[in-house]
Amino acid sequence: MSYGDYLGLDQLLTAQHPLSEAPDELLFIIQHQTSELWMKLMLHELNSARDALAEDRLQEAFKMLARVSRIMEQLNSAWDVLRTMTPSDYTTFREALGHSSGFQSLQYRLVEFTLGNRNTEMLKPHAHDAGAVALLEAELKKPSLYQAVLQLAARKGMEIPQEAIAAPSQVPHSEIGAIQDMWAQVYSAPQTHWSLYELAEKLVDLEDYFRRWRFNHVTTVERVIGFKRGTGGTAGVAYLTKMLGTELFPELWRVRTDL
């Protein structure tokens, strides 16, 4: 077996099919393809971390969550490459994209659902693909990563409202005072609750990088297309700016004010 055989390079390096003669279209394609590859690994690590948390294998979960943060760092760096494309460059092939849009990324939606930003309205962009809908619905039948963390905290004797962990969430997680109080206990006595303290910081790291990714997305889109509507029909920058306010683990951010 050769290097190329093992990595499937024949398939990988021939998977780029520009629809125009614009030189920057290859950049655009490779940027998004590599992002999808990183998201594939991200989903693998998030699912493995969730399984590890359910089985109280915390050290393994810590390593996987740290890796997800590093993956997010790679995704953030990729925007620096895409930002070398100017508005003039993009307009030479934008029409060739039709209605295709990153908004339609199944893997990105799975990442959001896994992390707890579960909005069933987001099934609609995938309604044309029964397989995609099945994958998203299967994810909605599992506890989110944050629910797995809270279930772990409950097993460790912390007071967690049952409604937060009894069934897989079907809506985006919103702030719960009792959960914030629990994290306040953890942060007030880290030596007593070290594993939860370390786990909390792994989640904050992850969301920190995720927030940066969203911000980089907004600024890159504004830099390239201004305030035009997105190719997928979204409001473009206005829609992405609204998403900046989304919080995955709100209690972990709010608790800092109380300490």
Layout: helices, strands, pairs:
Blueprint lengths: L2 H5 L1 H5 L11 H30 L3 H25 L4 H5 L14 H10 L14 H11 L4 H11 L6 H4 L11 H12 L5 H32 L11 H7 L6 H9 L1
Number of helices: 13
Query: What does the largest sheet look like?
Result: none
The helix content, as a percent range, equals 55-70%
Radius of gyration: 20 Å
The secondary-structure element order is HHHHHHHHHHHHH
CATH architecture: Up-down Bundle
Category by helix and strand content: mainly alpha
Low-confidence stretches: none
* Quantity of strands, as a count: 0
CATH topology: Methane Monooxygenase Hydroxylase, Chain G, domain 1
Overall pLDDT, averaged? Answer: 93
- The structural domain count equals 1
Distance between the termini: 57 Å
Can you give a write-up of this model?
The protein has 13 helices and no strands. It has helices at 3-7, 9-13, 25-54, 58-82, 87-91, 106-115, 130-140, 145-155, 162-165, 177-188, 194-225, 237-243, 250-258. It has one domain (22-258): Methane Monooxygenase Hydroxylase, Chain G, domain 1. It is mainly alpha-helical and 259 residues long.
Keyphrases for this structure?
64% helix; mainly alpha; Methane Monooxygenase Hydroxylase, Chain G, domain 1; 259 residues
Briefly say what this structure is.
By secondary structure, the chain is mainly alpha-helical.
